[in-house]
Amino acid sequence: MKTTTACLECTLSGSGLYVGMELSEKKWKLAFATSPGQKPRLRDIDAWDLGRMKQEVARTLERFKLPAETPVYCCYEAGRDGFAVHRALEAQGWHSLVMDSSSIEVSRRKRRAKADGLDAGKLVNLLARYQQGETKAFKVVRVPSREEEDRRHWHRELKVLKDDRARISARLRSWLKLHGIRWKGSLRGLGGRLEQLRDWEGQPLPEVHRECLRLEAERWEDLSEQIEKLDRKRREWMKTHCNPVWEQVVQLMKLKGIGIETAWYLTLELFGWRRFENRRQLASLAGISPTPYDSGDGHHEQGITKNSNSQMRAILIEMAWSWVRYQPSSALTLWWKRRFSEAGGRARKIGIVAVARKLLIALWKFLRFGEIPEGANLKLVDL
Predict the structure, then answer these.
(1) What are the pLDDT digits (tens) for 11-50?
(2) The domain at 2-143 falls in which architecture?
(3) Helix axis angle, 207-240 relative to 244-253, nearest 10°?
């Protein structure tokens, strides 16, 4: 009785007008329907022409003989447009869902038709199924608030600047190597010392190449200055804006082996604005949960899911290695040493992924319930 009532309520609450949106740079393809499997009504509008979209919604409600107050449910795939479209649709009084593109079911044929109209029709059909109770039709992306999204630009911009500096650093060292010069240490001040440098024959560097080196050295100096400035502003921001997010960053930094970059990334990308009901959801989002294959007589492990972006997994693996090094007496490190320290290199790498998964769950419990990881040592935090 309870199951039947719940399904009926879900179906009734999901009734309305469904709009699937296929977004592109200049045009938006809209597909309207009122139930799964219905042939959609397709319309084209200019990108971000919300006035025209309101007109099309009104005309569709009239065409389908629906009341003007019928709820409108919209959906589109997560991509380059980000969450601005979602906020604009919500501002119109419509319900909006952002789909995880990788969760959309597609044909497994070697070749399949691809067109904006077909894609929009597929989206509206999935949306109707989702709203009428089939919640596994696709995965919904958790939309951050404007403030939550804005805070994530701190570490993302730092990552871009550091990657650019690393690229220039590698280029400078390679150019010096062409003349038999092996540069050790920091590249700071290289531009002012090019005149004194000598190649393997004791000759000055060629004029053109010396000028190219000077330009690259100046770019390296500029990037280093920008990195220091941005990092300084970030630390000042943490001191002046006291809120639960920054408190979580400081709390993670109290654990030995976790610095500001790791604590900042995990808080701003995972713990600061997402809500996890259990450890399986956390490991699945991070892309480090196992993927078993168990069909018929075949039983084997396919490795981790890799659902997340590669940067998140790289940070988690780096954090696991750091934990093993700086928390030698923790229960997690002792478990890893007991299981994998005597094994070969490949087994150690597989084991460190398991450490990363267990450690991520332990940190989530540390932030949510205050449970310090077993055997972990704390340190003072100085911002």
Answers:
(1) 334 479 999 999 999 999 999 999 999 999 999 999 999 9
(2) 2-Layer Sandwich (3.30)
(3) 110
